[in-house]
TrEMBL record, chain A:
Protein source organism: Bos mutus grunniens
Primary gene name: CIB3
GO BP field: angiogenesis; apoptotic process; calcium ion homeostasis; cell adhesion; cell differentiation; cell division; spermatogenesis
CDD domains, alphabetized: EFh (cd00051)
Record protein name field: Calcium and integrin-binding protein 1
SUPFAM superfamilies cross-referenced by the UniProt entry: EF-hand
UniProt keyword list: Angiogenesis, Apoptosis, Calcium, Cell adhesion, Cell cycle, Cell division, Cytoplasm, Cytoskeleton, Differentiation, Lipoprotein, Magnesium, Metal-binding, Myristate, Repeat, Spermatogenesis
Recorded topology in the membrane: Lipid-anchor
Pfam families: EF-hand_7
GO cellular component terms listed in the entry, alphabetical order: apical plasma membrane; centrosome; filopodium tip; growth cone; lamellipodium; perikaryon; perinuclear region of cytoplasm; ruffle membrane
Subcellular localization, as worded in the UniProt entry: Apical cell membrane; Cell projection, Filopodium tip; Cell projection, Growth cone; Cell projection, Lamellipodium
Taxonomy, superkingdom: Eukaryota
Domain EF-hand: 144-179
Gene Ontology MF, one: magnesium ion binding
TrEMBL record, chain B:
Residues annotated as transmembrane: 256-279, 338-359, 429-450, 470-491, 503-522, 590-610, 649-671, 692-713, 749-773
S-adenosyl-L-methionine in keyword set: no
Designated name of the protein: Transmembrane channel-like protein
Chain ranges of the TMC domain: 572-687
Swiss-Prot/TrEMBL keywords: Membrane, Transmembrane, Transmembrane helix
Sequence ranges of Basic and acidic residues compositional bias: 74-94, 101-126, 809-821
Species annotation: Bos mutus grunniens (Wild yak)
Membrane topology note: Multi-pass membrane protein
Biased composition (Basic residues): 33-42
Top-level taxonomic group: Eukaryota
Family: Belongs to the TMC family.
Upper lineage: Eukaryota, Metazoa, Chordata, Craniata, Vertebrata
Length: 187, 902
């Protein structure tokens, strides 16, 4: 192989491999993708762990994310302080969770966070409305949207408290036949 | 909102419970961090506090400020043991309660805290141990027992850490935390794994650890390598990200098919064609390996070769080329035997691989039955394909999600509405009638054309069209019937998903009908040829006889043998069948490619470039771009494979051609999809229909097995071509081998095994076994369903507990807030929830019998505790039921703070 790259130390790469579902090669590729987003911002040497954040505007314009209605939520969930600006660590985290290898539980946990628009640890009716509006680009009438939200709550709300807890959500999503195949971004 | 409320409830202190809870929450965490509080823990956990003291005394010098307090703590150690136990229980309860509110969130955080605590203790132990090892070297007996115990514990810790390291990537933590935890865990493991092997083979242990590390690294590298080795992975990923997973499923299927065909090709090529080419008699040595004199001058023309006549026909690609010599070459390779066994194993391998992949597909989808309960939820949370990275696809996806939502809303609203049933029924019957007419018509057309082609084949100088009429007609039918069916299916007004299945079934029936008509016509042809065979045999005989015995030749000089090209020969129906399949495959391939080129690529070019100078919008309007026809392509692939399976016995080269076809179509279709197709408007789920395709493939495999088995078992092979010539039936080759090459007793055993008296009982036994296994699996699945129901009931009970509890805390704060009427509905809901929970509980009690009733009774209590709380605001004053249940609450638990102030 040879040590061609000088971006990370060997230990850093090993640690990243332990912490993500990526191989060494994929980590390097992800780094270059990250670096490409803001070449003037991101240094080519990460051995000293520089504190660099790429703003959300650049993250959201990646071809993998730019058509995703939930891109802002994704970036917010994975960024450190919820503003969507991401460090390399956040970036790797995001694609690791979204990778094919990530287990269902992990994906379900983050999916819950993504769909929880107001960060109150419950998916309430308002969150559901947001989700539907984003999914359909607001082409449904308000009655239809509210009917859908009602139906979803009816189906998935196990404890009938009018909102979905993480447990409800996991219980529902773990039975979804194509959750794993759709909640997945390959890079 | 609720979170805030709860927080207020905790801190504002709605009575003792709230205070206790907030206190334990706050201090419980801090206590673990502050060194003074850590002491007692250690003292409690260390086996005997006194033993720990020497180390402590030695240490007392080095640490600065905290030591006096620690000493105190040591002294108080025993006394505090009791208190500690109390605190431990308090912590436990507090932890339990914390779980209530936001259970899983906390749960995920809780272990880490524990780990940290544990780690800190570990460090202390380690230091202790160091000191002990130096100072207590003399007093060995007690020290050793201690260290062993500690070692065991450390071993456990190390194992835990290792588990943590292994599962680090699936922890829902931010990366910085993961990295920190990982570093700590690794340091810990590195520090201690050497110490573990102390005493007995430390080196061995270190070596083993090293090897384990290397092994992990190797596994990772191997995994990297393996993912790189999957062919076309990037291409398919690319398509998947542009077109969603359903189109990619076709390409994955194509890749799978390519793999299967490669194996078949390896079998046939390696065991039949290569030995024949290397060791068999060369071309031109015997009549069956020579082009006959009449065809000789045209045999190299391209048009002849293109039809697989001429030199192509007399090559190792076809059945007729093979000689019936029992063994060939210096290896004494039994070619006829190998030919037969390869023909059988092609089917055997295909059956096995199809069934295996079906079974593995099935295992993935266990909880299919439950998906009906969550239609809207699944649509809401899993319908967006995160892979989509193309704005066109995204637009389509938005549209399809919108329409699917609308559809299900309509379904929901109209599920109880009845429309004009008679009209739809009439239309459906009409549609089916029309389609059956189409199917019959196409079947007859093919039969007619095949009959005509037999007449053409007897005539001289037929035109190109007349020669290829069968293929052309079949391809045209395959091209025009599916759209026709789709148009007719519009009458039926089915749900699109059901409609798609119908469509698939009808196209399948069409193809199958065509295929079998074609086969029947071929059979007719074969029978005709077989009936002619006897006369040809006589002619051949007579020619040879006359040639050698004719007068006017010098008797003394032995006459040179007749040139093989001049020997009259039979029609060799096997090769004819092989040629037919070969032509069909090639023409099918060409038609597919031309369709793609014309229908997709040229259309796309036209739409793209003529749009600048056209009266209407071509891209959005009428022609627009083509969609990728998944169902048609998959069915085409399946039927092509059926042809291959049928034809490969008569044309060993067919599989090679198919491998080429699949390879080219992989690249060609990938290119065509990416360049000239637009994604579907209605994307149907790839995961479900995959097994549907496999089922069709299995059906086709079975159907293509039938004619081959029939010809092998009941038709006599041609007398002058192929590896089985001269035998009565093809399978005689086995008998021959058994008789000649195996010891006699084995032959006897085989004869005994082939006895119907043994075979019929064996078949019966198999049926019985199938019946037995089937019933066992049925009962198991029933038990499974029952268990699942029970789990669900328990789950619901638990949930209702939690919700009631959570509501109770919310109520505490609501009392201070003087809340509004919004929770009226919630409360009533809750009441019903509790009701159902208690119902299921009683059911459970009944089900579990007397043994479990006591525990169930315990669980009933807390539920009833909270009942008055939820009823308290007096929204539903049906307290007649509530009062008797309120008593146990008062009597068992004295938490008055729970009671709402009236």
């Amino acid at each position: 192989m040879g040590n061609k790259q000088t971006v990370f130390t060997h230990e850093q790469l090993e640690a990243y491999q332990d912490c993500t579902f990526f191989t060494r090669k994929e980590i390097m590729r992800l780094f270059y993708r990250y670096q490409d987003l803001a070449p003037q911002l991101v240094p080519l040497d990460y051995t000293s762990c520089p504190d660099v954040k790429v703003p959300y505007e650049l993250i959201g314009s990646m071809p993998e994310l730019k058509d995703n209605p939930f891109r802002q939520r994704i970036a917010q969930v994975f960024s450190e302080d919820g503003d969507g600006h991401m460090t390399l660590d956040n970036f790797l985290d995001m694609f690791s969770v979204m990778s094919e290898m990530a287990p269902r539980d992990l994906k379900a946990y983050y999916a819950f966070k993504i769909y929880d628009f107001n960060n109150d640890d419950y998916i309430c009716a308002w969150d559901l409305e947001q989700t539907v509006t984003k999914l359909t680009r607001g082409e449904l009438s308000t009655e239809e949207v509210s009917l859908i939200c009602e139906k979803v709550l009816d189906e998935a709300d196990g404890d009938h408290d009018g909102r979905l807890s993480l447990e409800d959500f996991q219980n529902m999503i773990l039975r979804a036949p194509d959750f794993l195949s759709t909640f997945h971004i390959c890079i | 909102m609720s979170h805030q409320l709860k927080g207020q409830g905790e801190e504002g202190g709605g009575g003792t419970r709230g205070r206790a809870r907030s206190g334990s929450l706050g201090t419980g965490d801090r206590s673990r961090r502050s060194p003074s509080m850590k002491r007692p823990h250690r003292a409690e956990k260390a086996p005997v506090p006194r033993r720990a003291q020497p180390g402590q005394k030695e240490r007392a010098g080095s640490p600065g400020s905290g030591s006096p307090r620690r000493k105190q703590a040591e002294r108080r150690g025993r006394r505090e043991l009791l208190g500690d136990r109390e605190r431990g229980s308090a912590e436990k309860t507090c932890r339990g309660r914390r779980k209530d509110g936001r259970a899983s969130l906390r749960e995920q955080r809780a272990p880490s805290k524990k780990e940290k605590e544990v780690r800190r203790k570990e460090e202390m132990w380690k230091q202790l141990k160091k000191h002990r090892s130096s100072s207590m070297a003399s007093s060995t007996s007690s020290g050793e027992s201690l260290s062993e115990e500690e070692l065991a514990r450390i071993l456990e810790q190390v194992e835990d850490k290792k588990k943590l390291i292994a599962s680090m990537r699936s922890k829902p933590w931010p990366m910085a935390r993961k990295l920190a935890e990982l570093r700590e865990a690794q340091e810990f493991v590195e520090k201690y794994e050497g110490a573990l092997g102390k005493g007995k083979g430390k080196r061995l242990y270190a070596y083993r650890m090293l090897m384990a590390k290397k092994w992990v690294k190797f596994k990772r590298d191997f995994h990297n390598f393996k993912t790189q080795c999957i062919p076309w992975e990037m291409k398919i990923k690319d398509i998947e990200s542009h077109f969603g997973s359903s189109v990619a499923s076709y390409f994955i299927f194509l890749r799978w098919m390519y793999g299967v065909n490669l194996v078949l090709f390896g079998l046939i090529f390696g065991l039949v064609i290569i030995p024949e080419v290397l060791m068999g008699m060369p071309y031109g040595s015997i009549p069956r390996k020579t082009v006959p004199r009449a065809e000789e001058e045209k045999a190299m023309d391209f048009s002849v070769l293109w039809d697989f006549e001429g030199y192509m026909k007399y090559s190792a690609l076809f059945y007729g080329y093979y000689n019936n010599q029992r063994t060939i070459g210096w290896l004494r390779y039994r070619l006829p035997m190998a030919y037969f066994m390869v023909g059988v194993s092609v089917f055997g391998y295909s059956l096995m691989i199809v069934i295996r992949s079906m079974a593995s597909n099935n295992q993935g989808s266990t909880s299919e039955g439950e998906s009906d309960n969550f239609t809207f939820s699944f649509k809401m949370f899993t319908s967006w394909d995160y892979l989509i990275g193309n704005s066109e696809t995204a637009d389509n996806k938005y549209a399809s999600i919108t329409t699917s939502f609308k559809e299900s809303i309509v379904d929901e609203q109209e599920s109880n509405k009845e429309e004009n049933v008679h009209l739809t029924r009439f239309l459906r019957v009409l549609a089916n009638f029309l389609i059956i007419c189409c199917l019959c018509g196409s079947g007859y057309l093919i039969y007619f054309v095949v009959k005509r082609s037999q007449e053409f084949s007897k005539m001289q100088n037929v035109s190109w069209y007349e020669r290829n009429e069968v293929e052309i007609v079949m391809s045209l039918l395959g091209m025009f019937c599916p759209p026709l069916f789709e148009t007719i299916a519009a009458l039926e007004n089915y749900h699109p998903r059901i409609g798609l299945k119908w469509q698939l079934g009808r196209i399948f029936a069409l193809f199958l009908g065509n295929l079998y008509t074609f086969l029947l016509a071929l059979m007719d042809d074969i029978q005709l040829k077989l009936s002619n065979e006897e006369t040809i045999k006589n002619i051949t005989h007579w020619t040879l006889f006359h040639y050698y015995n004719s007068s006017g030749w010098n008797e003394s000089v032995p006459r040179p043998p007749l040139h093989p090209a001049d020997v009259p020969r039979g029609s060799c129906w096997e090769t004819a069948v092989g040629i037919e399949f070969m032509r069909l495959t090639v023409s099918d391939m060409l038609v597919t490619y031309i369709t793609i080129l014309l229908g997709d690529f040229l259309r796309a070019c036209f739409v793209r470039f003529m749009n600048y100078c056209w009266c209407w919008d071509l891209e959005a309007g009428f022609p627009s771009y083509a969609e990728f026809d998944i169902s048609g392509n998959v069915l085409g692939l399946i039927f092509n494979q059926g042809m291959i399976w049928m034809g490969s016995f008569y044309a060993p080269g067919l599989v090679g051609i198919n491998v080429l076809r699949l390879l080219t179509s992989m690249y060609f279709q990938c290119w065509a999809v990416m360049s000239s197709n637009v994604p579907h408007e209605r994307v149907f789920k790839a995961s479900r229909s995959n097994n549907f395709y496999m089922g069709l493939l299995l059906l086709v495999l079975f159907l293509s097995l039938l004619p081959v088995a029939y010809t092998i078992m009941s038709l006599p092979p041609s007398f002058d071509c192929g590896p089985f010539s001269g035998k009565n039936r093809m399978y005689d080759v086995i008998q021959e081998t058994v008789e000649n090459d195996f010891p006699t007793f084995l032959g006897k055993i085989f004869a005994f095994l082939a006895n119907p008296g043994l075979i019929i009982p064996a078949i019966l036994l198999m049926f019985l076994a199938i019946y037995y296994l089937n019933s066992v699996s049925k009962s198991l699945s029933r038990a499974n369903a029952q268990l699942r129901k029970k789990i669900q009931a328990l789950h619901e009970v638990e949930k209702s507990h939690k919700s009631v509890k959570g509501r109770a805390t919310a109520r505490d704060s609501e009392d201070t807030d003087k809340n509004n009427s919004k929770n009226d509905t919630q409360l009533t809901k809750e009441g019903t929830a509790h009701h159902s929970a208690s119902q299921s509980l009683t059911l459970d009690q009944k089900a579990q019998g007397p043994g479990a009733s006591s525990s169930a009774g315990k669980t009933v209590l807390p539920a009833s505790q909270h009942l008055p709380v939820s009823r308290a605001p007096g929204v539903r004053p049906d307290s007649g039921q509530a009062r008797p249940q309120a008593h146990p609450w008062r009597s068992t638990s004295g938490k008055r703070a729970w009671r709402p102030p009236h």
